[in-house]
Each structure stands twice: as structure tokens, then as C-alpha cells.
User: Which sequence fits this backbone?
């Protein structure tokens, strides 16, 4: 019997990728609610949804997200909203005995100066990167809550930690988005305006790992279909295994978009964490690896940006 599945945050980058992966695998009994239809910050409304719909699986992909600028500008909102969403979903799942729950986290949970590549065992071994500390604290709390539900109540609840993501339905806000969608938008606008140059924050030297969101969606569905909390542990890293400097990333996006102007760096702005590479060997041992190259994924992402007419 096919499971009844709630995907919280189904319109976002991660949630929409999970929906596509579910449908591709033949699972179409989905519970999908927009923000207007269901306010995840309202505990009563979330509980009513679980009472009425009784999902078998829950993917917790809803979150308040953003880049360095957004995290630095709205620290309270990042803490409060993410904790509230998580708490409401976890509590409703516990009350209504949901069979399987997956919490989606972020690589920012790891210490700023974490040994590379970052292993699951590195959690809470050092100070966090200050520019995204509120979001990281909320996600660490989510990991611990899922693990506690498994230990205390026997729920099949666990967490997935992806590296930096990009892809379809990304947030292309010029200040509050992550690096890839922000650069896609800025290069596109600069090309259309014949701008002689664009400036990017920081030195461009930090190294980052990027994963196409549809690869993550496939990994999430694979885990829900084939694995359980005892096999996975409290949480598991999911990454591409490849890293690139921010400067080289920008050059690749410039080539993808077709911008011919100059690219400069504002070194007075923060770089963020110097290097972030996930150790995804645990995920590989469970039988899954990423398929989409960065160059291929960027072409798909830019085509999606153009299609949306932003």
C-alpha cells in the first residue's frame, strides 16, 4: 500500500524536489498545502491537519531560509520561525503517531572551523559561523528533537543534512537569496543592462560544495523507502562530494548566463566559513550518490530562472 505523504514546504527548493522525486517513484497520495492554506506557525492548525489527514510519512522541508545578509539582518525571525515550524510539526507527528518523519537540515550546523570533510560526529565540537548562527541553532535543535522522538517514543524519525543546494524554484531575491541564485540574477540583470562590471561580496576564496536539489529529493525518497532511523542514525550528510571556490563558481555562472563584463570583489564584506565539504561516505554506504554535475545543474537552474520571468 502506498503511503500518504505530507511534504511541508512543497513549493520551496527542497520541498518541490521531494515532490518530483515522490511522483517519479509512483507515490502520488500527497498532502500539499500552501502558506495561505496552512500557517505552519499555528500549532492548532498544524495539529488539525494531522488529525484530519493522518499522514504516514512527513518530510519537514519548510523553513525560513536565506544567505549571509538575511541571517545577519533578521536573527530573531530565523530563530523563532524555524523553531516554531519544527516544534509544531514534530508535536503533531508524535500525537498522531506518524509512521516516518524526515527533518531537513543544513550544513551550517557544523562548527566554523570544522575539520574537512565534515563528518556527522563533528556536530557541536566547536563554535558556529556567526553569520548564520540563528539558523544553525534552529536546525541543530531539529536534529536533536527527531533523535529524541526516536529514542523516547520509538518513532522512525531522523534528519538529513544537505550541503549547499540550488535548482528549480530557488529564491532569487537580490539580497536574501543564497549565492548561486543571487549570482544568476545579478549576472542576468547585468547582461541585460550592459553593465561593465558587477561586484561580489568577499574575497572569492572560500570553498563550497553544491548539490542539485533534485538529487537531494531523490536521496530523501530513497531513504524513506528503504532505510530506517536505526540504520541512518540521528542524521546523515548528503552532498555531491565536489567543491569549488566562490570565485570559480561565479565565473562558471557568468559563462552559463553569458555575461561579458568584469567581476570584482568587495573584500570589506565577510566571506563566511572558509571551507564547507561534507563527508557523505555514510550515505554512499547506504547505496546512494549524486548524479548531476554543477555545470549541468547550473544550465537547468538558469533555464528555470528564465522560464519564471523574474
Assistant:
Amino acid at each position: 500500500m502506498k503511503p500518504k505523504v505530507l511534504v511541508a514546504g512543497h513549493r520551496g527548493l527542497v520541498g518541490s524536489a521531494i515532490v518530483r522525486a515522490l511522483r517519479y517513484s509512483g507515490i502520488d497520495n500527497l498532502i500539499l498545502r500552501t502558506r495561505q492554506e496552512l500557517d505552519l506557525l499555528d500549532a492548532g492548525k498544524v495539529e488539525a491537519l494531522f488529525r484530519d489527514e493522518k499522514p504516514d510519512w512527513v518530510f519537514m522541508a519548510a523553513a525560513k531560509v536565506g544567505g549571509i545578509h538575511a541571517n545577519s539582518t533578521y536573527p530573531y525571525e530565523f530563530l523563532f520561525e524555524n523553531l516554531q515550524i519544527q516544534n509544531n510539526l514534530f508535536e503533531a507527528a508524535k500525537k498522531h503517531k506518524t509512521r516516518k518523519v524526515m527533518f531537513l537540515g543544513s550544513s551550517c550546523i557544523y562548527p566554523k572551523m570544522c575539520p574537512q570533510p565534515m563528518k556527522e560526529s563533528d556536530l557541536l565540537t566547536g563554535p558556529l559561523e556567526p553569520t548564520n548562527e540563528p539558523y544553525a541553532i534552529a536546525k541543530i535543535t531539529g536534529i536533536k528533537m527527531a533523535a529524541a522522538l526516536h529514542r523516547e517514543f520509538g518513532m522512525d524519525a531522523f534528519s538529513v543534512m544537505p550541503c549547499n543546494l540550488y535548482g528549480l524554484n530557488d529564491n532569487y531575491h537580490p539580497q536574501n537569496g543564497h549565492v548561486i541564485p543571487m549570482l544568476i540574477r545579478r549576472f542576468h540583470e547585468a547582461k541585460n543592462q550592459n553593465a561593465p562590471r558587477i561586484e561580489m561580496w568577499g574575497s572569492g576564496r572560500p570553498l563550497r560544495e553544491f548539490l542539485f536539489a533534485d538529487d537531494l529529493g531523490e536521496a530523501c525518497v530513497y531513504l524513506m523507502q528503504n532505510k530506517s532511523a536505526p540504520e541512518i542514525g540521528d542524521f546523515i550528510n548528503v552532498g555531491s562530494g565536489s567543491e569549488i571556490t566562490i570565485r570559480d563558481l561565479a565565473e562558471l555562472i557568468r559563462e552559463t548566463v553569458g555575461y561579458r563584463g568584469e567581476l570584482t570583489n568587495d573584500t570589506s564584506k565577510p566571506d563566511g566559513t572558509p571551507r564547507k565539504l561534507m563527508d557523505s561516505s555514510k550515505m554512499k554506504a547506504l547505496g546512494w550518490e549524486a548524479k548531476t554535475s554543477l555545470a549541468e545543474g547550473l544550465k537547468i537552474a538558469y533555464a528555470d530562472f528564465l522560464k519564471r520571468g523574474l
Observations:
- The chain has a mean pLDDT of 94.
- DSSP finds eleven helices and twelve strands in the chain.
